[in-house]
Write a structure and sequence with these properties.
Layout: H1 2-20, H2 28-44, H3 53-68, H4 74-94, H5 105-127, H6 129-153, E1 157-159, E2 163-167, H7 168-188, H8 193-224, H9 239-262
Antiparallel strand pairs: 1-2
Helix pairs in contact: 2-3, 2-5, 3-5, 4-5, 4-8, 4-9, 5-6, 5-9, 6-7, 6-8, 6-9, 7-8, 8-9
């Protein structure tokens, strides 16, 4: 437990410094680059053995870094990612009865998922580091709420064949905890009426997506026959083990914000008051 806490504290310091030290991405962009490099390497462990890791890692790194500097591509990646997560919902529910998703398509899925999440993180950070931090807080609070409520009250399994320790009661606890964060931030942003309800709805959808991301990676690890995606983070496993929820949450939130701004339900993020 203490090893997990120490690793978590170090990670928070590193990520916080990269996000808030400067609005010029001389720290944040290298952090994303290292993150996607390690995550893509760990993803190859989840794919069928016949895949060549070097090709996948090179392709993901090239596409991700190239897409960061072409904002016109961001929306395409987010939409593709959203489609994958919709399909993944069914895959998680029926596992292990159906495993058609496991095979060659994991190569393309990995490229889309990693590129969509990294471009979403970068786009939110560009507007304000606080927007990216808000998504982090949603995911962390939901995860913590689910852990403590599930530990005390959990009885009904959420997805027993994928992650036996997760419960429906824990999911509800996580949603309530994250809802408190979303409501607080919504009022701080001075949102009212339809805009406030849309913001809260998007926040709830983001949390649900984060849970799906966690379950999906657990399913991949079970199918691949491994416990952790890596060992680079003492007490936590691999990078994918720490960001699995963010892989789904960040593009869903970024896509949702774009849609709500486009239909004029929310004002442009840059015109909203600072979150904190």
């Amino acid at each position: 437990m203490w090893q997990r806490i120490k690793t978590a504290v170090i990670l928070v310091i590193i990520v916080g410094m990269a996000m808030f030290t400067s609005r010029v991405p001389f720290l944040f962009l290298p952090l994303l680059t290292v993150g996607v490099l390690i995550a893509s390497h760990e993803w190859t462990k989840l794919m069928p053995k016949h895949k060549q890791p070097a090709q996948f890692i090179t392709l993901v790194l090239a596409i991700t870094l190239g897409s960061i500097f072409i904002p016109q591509l961001w929306l395409i990646w987010w939409v593709l990612s959203f489609g994958i997560w919709l399909m993944a919902t069914k895959w998680v529910l029926v596992y292990p009865a159906q495993e058609k998703w496991y095979g060659r398509r994991l190569f393309i899925m990995g490229v889309i998922i990693l590129t969509a999440s990294i471009t979403a993180m970068y786009s939110l950070w560009q507007v304000s580091p606080w927007w990216l931090m808000y998504v982090f807080l949603l995911v962390w609070c939901a995860d913590s709420g689910a852990y403590f409520v599930g530990r005390k009250l959990g009885k009904r399994k959420l997805a027993p064949n994928v992650s036996p320790n997760k419960s429906i009661e824990g999911l509800i606890g996580g949603l309530v905890t994250s809802a408190l964060v979303a409501i607080t931030v919504g009022f701080e942003l001075q949102l009212t009426g339809v805009a406030l309800m849309a913001f809260l709805g998007l926040s709830g959808l983001t949390v649900m997506a984060s849970v799906l991301g966690d379950l999906f990676e657990s399913m991949l690890k079970r199918r691949a026959g491994i416990k952790d995606s890596g060992t680079i983070l003492p007490g936590h496993g691999g990078v994918l083990d720490r960001i699995d929820s963010l892989l789904s949450a960040t593009p869903v939130f970024a896509l949702g914000v774009w849609v709500l701004v486009y239909i004029k339900v929310l004002p442009a993020l840059g015109s909203l008051p600072r979150v904190f």
